[in-house]
Design a protein that fits this description.
Elements (H helix, E strand, L loop, with lengths): L12 H4 L3 E5 L5 E6 L4 H8 L5 H8 L8 H8 L6 E8 L4 E9 L7 E8 L8 H15 L4 E7 L3 H8 L5 E6 L2 E7 L13 E5 L7
Parallel strand pairs: 5-6, 7-9
Antiparallel strand pairs: 1-2, 2-3, 3-4, 4-5, 6-8, 7-8
Helix pairs in contact: 2-4
The structure holds coenzyme A.
């Protein structure tokens, strides 16, 4: 029998656009995670020049330089029906340090692609972990049962982070990248160990 938590209350696009969550990293640092807003494009534009080539490559699989405000608006002016995006705010100034998103083909699809980025100077402090955890939880309320992420094979932090969220996970390797699929139909188990990961097809010698 499925638990009562298996089907969380539905989250409409209007509600998703007003999300405002207070959370903390594993170390106890407080963060605010809220729905992205069109005005975030200005702060996001200022952050781009601070990003390393590696960070850009891990996120976009190519190095992009200084996108126009119009291009950035595609990431900030989103509809919350097919594209749900969250930003992480840090410190007393509530500055933007990360963003993550779920994108699905149609508003009634239960499959979404996940991506995220933490700015270089704030990486490896637990921000990515809390952002992905919230994206997956919000995604379940948004009607998502399967989350897919394309992850570079050398992106060990992202692979570790996805595999240890407590959802059944499958990894399929092809030409330097993993397609990671998380089954979010059921709530996450508390036992957030990487043994939840099952490797669908893995290139020999690639350690995940
Ligand atoms: C990948 C990314 C989102 C992770 O976010 P983060 O805030 O830096 O990572 P966290 O501090 O939450 O750590 C996540 C896990 O990775 C591990 N980790 C951190 N740095 C690592 C490294 N260099 N190598 C291997 N694992 C690492 C951590 O130990 C942590 O696991 P734990 O919580 O079990 O200890 C972030 O580094 C990033 O934005 N990178 C560039 C863009 C990118 O790769 N986006 C993802 C595309 S799908």
């Amino acid at each position: 029998m499925e638990s009562a938590l298996a089907h969380p209350p539905a989250l409409s696009a209007e509600e998703a656009a007003r999300l405002y969550l207070c959370d903390q990293t594993r170390k106890g640092d407080p963060v605010v995670i809220r729905a992205i807003a069109p005005d975030d494009k200005f702060e996001m534009r200022d952050l781009y020049p601070t990003l390393s080539e590696r960070t850009l490559y891990m996120r976009f699989f190519r190095v992009i330089s200084a996108p126009s405000l119009e291009a950035i608006a595609r990431y900030t002016d989103v509809d919350f029906g097919t594209h749900l995006a969250l930003v992480v705010l840090w410190g007393p100034e509530q500055r933007m340090v990360a963003a993550g998103r779920l994108i699905r083909a149609t508003a009634d699809s239960d499959v979404a692609e996940l991506s995220c980025l933490v700015i270089d100077e704030m990486q490896y402090r637990g921000i990515g972990r809390v952002l992905v955890r919230q994206l997956l939880a919000v995604g379940r309320q948004w009607g998502i049962n399967r989350v897919i992420a394309l992850v570079h094979a050398e992106n060990h932090a992202m692979l570790k982070l996805l595999k240890s969220q407590g959802y059944p996970t499958e990894l399929v390797y092809d030409e330097g990248e993993f397609t990671v699929t998380l089954d979010t139909h059921q709530p996450p188990s508390d036992d957030n160990d990487s043994h939840h990961a099952t490797v669908g097809a893995m290139h020999q010698g690639i350690e995940t």
